[in-house]
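thoughts on both lines:
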Amino acid sequence: MVAIDEISGVYNHTDECTAQVEMERNPCLPLHADLREFALSLLRKNVPLSLLRSECSAWAQARWSGLPGDNFARYCLTTHDISSLYRSISHERGVTTVPRSYVSRSIFRTCPSFFL
């Protein structure tokens, strides 16, 4: 059993301490480059999304022993990563996306009753 008898120290905050700004949320860390490349290689083989998540998780577990990340990158996929990976693969395959406003204007010109 541990007992604390006395705590000593400076009880006032220093100027440097009070000048610090509290973060409202955790900083956004990018996906580790090796894990990103592994996920892209799976997508190039047309691996389904459910299998992609589990394969990446197992690969990261084996490589980094279950750590969530370090100070520079994450070792787990998020929903945003999946979208980004799919956009990267689409771009590699030459698929381009058109902004929605352009599509809406084109549909309206060809079929105005579509929006009624």
